[in-house]
Amino acid sequence: MSDTDETLTSTPVAPAAPSAGPSMPEDGVTHTILIVEDDKVLQELYIDRFTAAGLNVIQAFDGLQALDRLDANPDVQLILLDLMLPKLSGYDVLSQVKKNADKRDIPVIIVSALADVDDQARGMQLGAAEYITKGEVLPGVVIDKIKQYVLSVPGPTE
What we know:
Elements: E1 8-12, E2 32-36, H1 40-52, E3 56-60, H2 63-72, E4 76-81, H3 90-99, E5 108-112, H4 117-125, E6 130-134, H5 139-152
Parallel strand pairs: 2-3, 2-4, 4-5, 5-6
Antiparallel strand pairs: 1-6
Helix pairs in contact: 2-3
């Protein structure tokens, strides 16, 4: 199996918005997401797909860098977050985001190899919008889910 064939599992919390279709954004707004993933191959796959779909993508390779990038980019509308990260875990990143009054409403979608029910429960209790387990859902499905979330969030205000 190639890196692009890796699959992921999803545990939804809220019903997803209707499918965004093959390209976006249709609303004429530039949507910004933060991808926090230390696997460079997987991160590049996501970046390529999201930028091709018209999204502005900011990347971080560890937890501390994720918080720095989030502080430097107030227009982030969604965070795609791995849990097993160098320097600061994804759980810690999620906890800090949800404690910050300016950032707590940003949807955070966890994409992790941690498949244990306790790991999923912890992520959801900390405020994740969705928990997707790597290895059980194709990356294309993750991309479609991200598109749905981003299109349901208003664009940045000018």
